[in-house]
Automatic annotation (TrEMBL):
Protein name: Polyprenyl synthetase family protein
Entry-linked InterPro entries: Isoprenoid_synthase_dom_sf (IPR008949), Polyprenyl_synt (IPR000092), Polyprenyl_synt_CS (IPR033749)
Pfam assignment, any one: polyprenyl_synt
Domain of life assignment: Bacteria
Any one GO MF annotation of this record: metal ion binding
Alphabetized Gene3D superfamilies for the sequence: Farnesyl Diphosphate Synthase
PROSITE patterns for this protein: POLYPRENYL_SYNTHASE_1
Keywords (A to Z) from UniProt: Magnesium, Metal-binding, Transferase
Cofactor(s) in the UniProt record: Mg(2+)
Amino acid sequence: MPSQVSLAKLLRSFDQNLNKIIGDDLPILKLIKRFVIESGGKRIRPITHYLFCHFVGYSGKKWQEVGAVAELIHSASLLHDDVVDNASLRRGKPTVGASFGNKTAILSGDFLLACGIERLNSLELPAVMHIFSRVLRDLAVSELIQMEWEKNPKISMKIYESIIYGKTASLFGACTESAGHLAGLSGKECKELSDFGIRLGKLFQKKDDCLDYFYTSKESGKEFLKDFKNGLYTYPILILKDTVSSKTRKEIDLLFLKTERTERDCEQILSLLKIHNIEQRLTDEFNKENIYFQKFLSKFPDTAERRLFQDQIQKLI
């Protein structure tokens, strides 16, 4: 996969297979299929799985099936998330819940999960089935933890880490670890791949949290300060709270405890982030993680695929 052109070709083939996996016996299912395949998603998880299959020497076709399962789990989690968050838009388009109701969105997410598990079961790969079953458990647990601690000023970094592990990192870890199982690697080697994926997933979520505060809507594709306006404690705010005095920490919590946050509140939180140099601190942290990622990937042959993945991580940072 030496170029973006061949990457596009690979994704077309992947989407064709994904289309076959998702049934459409009912009219509403045709719409759900369109949501998954035409939603504008970047297919980051299946691409990660494919590239790691390449890195560890697996050249079979089962990567498409496993990658499809990862994408279906991800898509189902988005459907469920939008209901929990009462979101009306996803990537600039109306959510399934906004268009057809929350009941339809929840059942559609369940349907996608069923499609994925059915296909995974057909592969007769017990180890891979176990990995993705664990992901489903992690997703549910993290959502419950998030609901319990949502808008709670006592949320700790440990709790935050457990939430992003289940919501994001666990699935990334499954994508990398399952590549090792397809290639017949040892348990220790598969664990190393899993650890890499989990760290990448956590970085991915933390960087996504940063978009809310340090990037314009045009740059990020997200509503500026949406998490803050919703009163959600995300990574930049937790780092800020760990940095400031107890007096300032209480002032921050008061902002988040308000029913609604005003324009002046937005200016205040942005000012605090700037004064305490939080953006640069996070950039330095992410750059340190990048050193680990690049060193880990350097163990694999220097191919176009490896360079592509290294470049993508660099862009993420």
